[in-house]
Every structure is written in structure tokens, then in C-alpha cells.
Amino acid sequence: MNQSQQPNTILIVDDTEVNRAILQEVFCRDFLIEEAESGQEAVEKLEKGRGQIAAVLLDAVMPGMGGADVLRYMSQNGFDRIPVFLMAADAPSGLFAGEFQDRIADVIHRPVVEPAIVRKRVKNTIELYRLREEAHNLADRKARRYRDEVEERSRTGEMTIDLLCSVLEFRSGNAVQHAARVRAIVQLLLTELSRRDSKYALGQRKIRMIARAAAMHDVGKAAVPDRILLKKEPLTEEECKVLQSHTREGCRLFSGPEFQKHEFFRLCAEVCLHHHERWDGSGYPDGLKGEQISLAAQATAIADAYDCLTAERPRAQAAEMLRNGECGPMNPDVVGCFLELEDTIARRFYAGGSLFEDDDFTDEEEEKPSSHDISDRTLRLLERDRQRYALLSKISGEILFTYEAESDTTEFTEKYHEIFGGPTRIRHVGETFLREGKISESDLRRVSEAYLSLTQESPTRRLDIQMVPADGSPIWLELYLQAIWDSDNGNLLTGCYGKLTSIHQLKQETLRWKEQATHDYLTSLCNRQGFEAAVQAALRDRTENGFALVFMDIDHFKQVNDTQGHLTGDSLLRETGKLLRSMLRSTDLVARIGGDEFTALLNNLSRRDILCRKAEELRTAFREKLEPKYHCNISCSIGIAVCPEDGTVYSELLRKADMALYDVKERGGNGYAFYTNALEKAPYSTSLSDTDA
To answer: How far is CA 133 from CA 347, 374, 588, in A?
Structure first.
């Protein structure tokens, strides 16, 4: 895509006009700008500008159709590859979980205090998404080429089987291409039988596998001596037994443990052993009858008998002999289907037709272009495409891979070796990653669950994981999975294509922005927003022990600012934060919620005797450790509310702790108090709720 064709419009969605105006000023020099003042208008602008929108700056909370509704619409209507930046002063936690966890590219907090940095972040993310999209398209093209190559290898394998079997036919004196015709007849017969009768329904993959196995039906004759195999006179009873042993000899060839792991070789063993069994139990070597004989062996038996009969008889006579059971009775359903196909079989496989027609196989020579110039041009285009693919993969930092479920093998691009070391083709990649410490057990479980949850209705998955590269420092990656389905075999999930994209910088930046949004810049303690979120979580998860909310205020703090200056006041606030952290447990949380006001969440602690002792320790520490340094009669006032006795709502607990604090202040400070119902009658009982609760 040329630069001029690339999406270059940013859609700003915000119900407040001044917010939209500020954002337009930030981005108008680099992008075209579209504005929407509601979620519904955003949807209309998205549809109208389909293919032109480079990014969406989305307000988290809007009346009517809100930010979550817009995200849901984008995911369901083909806009899921457009980066979305959440604009919020206090981003709702619900937008970072569940169905929207992977849809938000970044969070930009208002007010925008550093426009240049925000503009750069948005531009970098848009460029990253563009590169990912182009690499994704290249990966799809490579996947199609890969499927074509797999199909070509399959066809070549079938020709190799037929060639090997033909060598055996030369030795045994049978007609050339007997094995190839048996394979072709079995494939056509089972395909038609599956179409007609659900009792015999098989997927095309299974049918092709049975047909290839059928070509191997007489491989056991390699163990029969030439004097018997080439004998023109009737065989003696003993010689017949030796000839019949080819069934067990063929089965034995495919019965080793290295063969039994694969379905194809198990089918070969089955066909070799039982293709001379008959429906009434009169066959050999095991005298099986009826449904005891596998469908693969039944179809092979009919194809084998018909081809042998037509070598010396007219085909009409051969068909009549099969109808009458003169080669031994066989499954009437399969024989009936074969006889209805007999004209087609004779025309396609015995009158100059291609044995490979059913596989859409044509002679390689016929497919070669007559002009060498065209072939050279194609090679040049393929090489250019390969180089572009390799370059984009390299500069985008992405690792592309394919996973094959049957062999449990994953093949990565060279980028994997550069970052993680080791081979690019790995068997049992999950076990390898876990053993080598490249991924955590929990992340590996999430990847496995994502793969197993792939469906035809939902064939892709994205999730963030951490992996450990060769240098030993964990990095954040986005894992993308695209399912591969075998539609010819009952829509079987056979593997997936995927890519690993580094999102480490974006993730770290997001975490830093979240950290800044919930922490006080001066003391590095939690701020009011972070403290409220922690208390809300404690209320949801509280145990029978409950917890205490402690509200603290520095007595005479204004005197420090007035007499020693605001820098000294800031120093006192920082030291207060350090003192509180050092005196509370690691499971407790300390916050500065404004000015010289501090709060603490004491988890699983509601016993008043312990709380009294802790409050007294804090009061004493202020007098002994801070007052000697600042000489302004420094002390602290402490108010305490206990959950659940004093309430089970954050605002209620904070208000009651503040009332207890105010009571201490009214009595001169330098002390602590618990909330009591009597405080509700005091004139200051509404102080917090009326001001900054």
C-alpha cells in the first residue's frame, strides 16, 4: 500500500466539545481529523470512513451508546484491527477486562500535559498496526503457498507408492499399474459410497489415506519365492499356503512399533492382512465374516478382484462374476455401489483415462508454461515477495509460525532464533518451552485453552503473554492464532498459523501510566483513586476478620509551610509517607489523599486493642521522629472506622473515619479516636460528605 493509500484519519469520540478541540490541536498537524460527540455518531463515522480510519480516540464514559458499546460494535463489524486509545481521567476498570481486554491499544489520561509524547505514542502505535496488518496479509499468502506445497507433496507420495508397487508387479508378472488402478478404484468407490449411505460416511482425508494403503495390498508377495510366484501350472496345496502367506507377511512389514504410531501404516497392515477375507467367512487368513472385515479391506478386495479379472476377460464378464460372487461373496452394499460405477471406472481407468483424475492431478510437464520468460518473471515475483515478507517480519519484530497438530510440530521464522536462540522447528513446543523456562505454566495453559477454543465461527484468538528470550529478561508479546481446518475430513482442526509481536514497550508504558494514575507524585504512595479501588477490593473479598480504615492528619502542618517554606513542607510529607510505610505491615496500604491527609487500609484487622496499640505507636513516632527535626509541635490526629461494624461502603467508612479524626482535632490533636454513633450528633458530622467525600 502506498503512503497516500494508507488510512490517515483519526476519529475523536467524546461528548465534551472542549476535549475534542484539545485533541484536534494535538493531532491535526499529522492526521486528518473526524469528530463524533456520541457513540452512535462514532459508528456512523466508522462506516462512512471504512478503510480510512487509522485510529480511534475513545472517551470511556458517554451518555447513551458508551465507550464499551462502541468497542463491541467495532469488534463485531470488521473494525477490530483499528487501534483504540482510551481517553479518560479515571478509566473504568471494566473496560480492561473480559471481551475488551485485547481491544485497547493504550490509555491516554486527561488532561494531556505532554502533547508531543502523546502524539508520538499514537503515531508509533498506528505504524505498528500498519506493519502488523501487512505482515498478516503476507503470512496469509505464505499459508496458501504452504497448503499448495503440502498438497503437491501428497500427490508425489501417491505416485511414489504406485511406482514402488509397480516394481513388485513386474516381479510377480501382473499387469503394470495394477496397484495404481486399485488405489484409484478404491478412492472413487469409497467417495461414492460415503455420499450415498451415511453408514459408510468417511471424510475425504480418510478416503485418500485408505486408497493409498490399498495400493500396498500385495506388498507381502515380496516374501514369496519366485518358483511359486511365477509358476504357470496349478499350485499344489502346500504352494497355495505359501502364496496365501503374503497377507501375513505384508501385515508384518507394517506392524513394527515405529509404524503403528501412524494411522496410514495401521491401514496398510489391515489391508494387507484382510483383503482376501470374504463376507461369508470363506476367505483367509483369519476367516473373518460380515462386518468383522474392515471397510478398507472390503473395498480393496473388490478393486483387486476386478482388476485381476479384467486382465484376461472382458469387463462385462468380470462385472458379472463379481455380481454372482464367483470370487467369493463380498459385502452386497459395496458390490452394488461398485457395479453402478463400473462404466465410469472402465472409462476412466481402463480406456486411456488418467488414474489420477480423481485427485485433480495433471502431468507436471503439461503445466509448465511454454514461455521461459513467464517462468522467470514468476520466479522474480516470488523472490521479491519472499524478500518483502522477510524484511517486514524483521523490521516489525514479529515472529511468524505454523503449528501442525498431528505431529505436534511448530515451525518459526528466523526471527525466533535471533531472539530466543535454538532451532526454528520444534516438536512438542509446549513441553520444550516449559522445560527451558521460556514461558510460565499459567501462560502456557492460557495458550492451550485459546487454541482448543478455536471454532469455525470464531477462528482467531489474541492474548498477551510473557516469554523469556536468550538474555533472560522476560518480555511481553501478543500472540495471534488463526485456525487451520480440514474441510475434507469433517472440518477437523489440523493446526494454526500465528505470530508473536513484541508489545513490551507499549505494555510497560501502559503499566507506568496506570501507576501514575493511581499514585501520589510527591510521596509515591497511593492517591485517592488508588486507595478507593483498594478498599473496594477489600470490601468484595473481605474475610470474617474485617478490616480498619485509618484517617490521619498532621497537626500544625500549616505552621511548617508558613515558617519554613513549602519545600520544607513537601519534605515533611515525604518523610511522613516513609514513616507510615515503615510502621505498617506489607499487607497494609498507605495513601495520601490530599494536602497533609493520609489514610491506611489495615487488612484483616478489626480488634480494637490491637488498633489502639498501633495508633499509639503512630502518635508516639510522630512526636519522637518528626517533631525534633521540624520544631513546630509536630504531632498527628488519627480517626478509625472498622468494617463491618461501622459500614460496608467505602464512602461511609471514609466519612466515619474522618468524623473520628475531626473529634480528635477538636480536642487539641495528638491522639486517636474510633468512630461512635454519638459523633453523628456533633456539628461537624457532615464535614467530609459535604466537601470532598
So the answer is: 50, 30, 46
CA atoms within 13 A on the CB side of 378: 7
What are 332's three cell numbers?
452386497
Q: Which residues of 568-585 are buried (b: 16+ CB within 10 A; e: fewer)?
A: ebebbbeebbebbbeebe
pLDDT in tens, 3-60: 446 788 999 998 888 788 888 888 888 889 999 999 999 999 999 988 889 999 998 7
From 630, 648, 649, 514, select the one nearest 572 (Cα to Cα).
Answer: 630
DSSP letters for 642-690: EETTT-SSHHHHHHHHHHHHHHHHHTTSSEEEE--GGGGGSTTTTHHHH
Residue 292's CB is within 10 A of a number of other CB atoms, namely 13
Rounded distance between C-alpha atoms, residue 288 and residue 300, angstroms? 15
The rounded distance, in Å, linking the Cα atoms of 335 and 303 is 10
Question: Which pLDDT value is given to residue 2?
Answer: 46
Report DSSP letters for 599-653, one per residue: EEEETT---HHHHHHHHHHHHHHIIIIIHHHH-S--EEEEEEEEETTT-SSHHHH
Alpha helices, DSSP H only, in 422-501? 429-435, 441-452
- Residue whose entry in the numeric block shows the C-alpha cell 512389514: 253
- Cα distance between residue 194 and residue 197, in whole Å: 6
Short-list 92, 34, 28, CA closest to 43: 34
The enclosing H or E element of 409 equals strand 409-412
Residue 556's SS3 state is coil
Across the range 440-460, mean pLDDT stands at 91
Q: Can you read off the three cell numbers belonging to residue 21?
A: 478541540
Alpha-carbon 61 to chain mean position: 29
Query: Is 138 or 386 the better-scoring residue by pLDDT?
Result: 138
Instruction: Give the pTM.
Output: 0.35
Kindly report, residue by residue over 639-649, the tens digit of the pLDDT: 999 999 999 99
